[in-house]
């Protein structure tokens, strides 16, 4: 297995320390050639929160940790020293983190919790460049309409909830469940384009 996976034919501007296809699509959308670093992640769907750690601190720490693991992976393999981008997305309801579901029952439980409620989606972005770490956070309020048990069951059967924070993907079938959004749509997808572009410019990358 190779350490990197090329996503563009043109020379890469940066490494992406994430296997998320949505983050790859959003970087491509803004014209940034990149390579994915296949950095092993800790076991489990989500990294655990530390005792006493707030949801806001948790998402920033996990993005930072991903960037630092990617930095070490790059250095250990003597890869070209490109800027490295990492991100983490967390769905928060009443201060509680609603992570990626571990199975169908867990996905249904999370969706019932979000049904008819407003929640917060935070995506933290971290860029390692040279010897510094640049960070930003996107905060978006999202309201999901009330869902029936049948709707939740059909959505779980689609397979879409799995691998996604909060058990839904706004860019997919669940877009029909969202009645209101205030903030960054791309942040809810997993990579806030505005904040990311600003960080990459600060890292010396020209963003179209």
Automatic annotation (TrEMBL):
Q: Which domain of life is it from?
A: Bacteria
Task: Show which residues constitute the signal peptide.
Answer: none
Where in the cell does this protein reside? Cytoplasm
Looking up InterPro entries in the UniProt record yields:
ITPase-like_fam, Maf-like
Q: What is the main EC category here?
A: hydrolase
Which GO biological process entries does UniProt record here?
nucleotide metabolic process
Q: What reaction gets catalysed by this protein?
A: UTP + H2O = UMP + diphosphate + H(+); dTTP + H2O = dTMP + diphosphate + H(+)
Quote any Pfam family the record assigns. Answer: Maf
* Cellular component GO terms held in the UniProt record: cytoplasm
User: What Gene Ontology molecular function terms does this protein carry?
Assistant: dTTP diphosphatase activity; UTP diphosphatase activity
Q: Has UniProt tagged this entry with the keyword Ribonucleoprotein? A: no
Q: Where is this site: Important for substrate specificity?
A: 22, 89, 171
Active site, per annotation = 88
Q: What Enzyme Commission number does this protein have?
A: 3.6.1.9
Tell me, in a sentence or two, what this protein's role is. Nucleoside triphosphate pyrophosphatase that hydrolyzes dTTP and UTP. May have a dual role in cell division arrest and in preventing the incorporation of modified nucleotides into cellular nucleic acids.
* Name under which the protein is recorded: dTTP/UTP pyrophosphatase
State the organism of origin.
Answer: Achromobacter agilis
């Amino acid at each position: 297995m190779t350490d990197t996976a090329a996503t563009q034919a043109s020379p890469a501007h940066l490494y992406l320390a994430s296997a998320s296809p949505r983050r790859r699509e959003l970087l491509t959308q803004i014209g940034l050639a990149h390579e994915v670093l296949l950095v092993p992640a800790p076991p489990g769907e989500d990294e655990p929160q530390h005792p006493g750690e707030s949801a806001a601190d948790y998402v920033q720490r996990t993005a930072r940790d991903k960037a630092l693991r990617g930095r070490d992976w790059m250095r250990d393999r003597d890869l070209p020293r490109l800027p490295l981008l990492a991100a983490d997305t967390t769905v928060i309801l009443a201060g509680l983190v609603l992570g990626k579901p571990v199975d169908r029952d867990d996905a249904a439980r999370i969706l019932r919790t979000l049904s008819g409620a407003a929640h917060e989606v935070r995506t933290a972005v971290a860029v390692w460049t040279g010897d510094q770490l640049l960070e930003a956070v996107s905060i978006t309020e999202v309201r999901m309409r009330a869902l029936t048990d049948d709707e939740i069951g059909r959505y779980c059967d689609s397979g879409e909830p799995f691998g996604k924070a909060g058990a839904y993907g706004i860019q997919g079938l669940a877009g029909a469940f969202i009645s209101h959004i205030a903030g960054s749509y791309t942040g809810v997808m997993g990579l806030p384009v505005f904040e990311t572009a600003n960080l990459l410019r600060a890292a010396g990358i020209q963003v179209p």
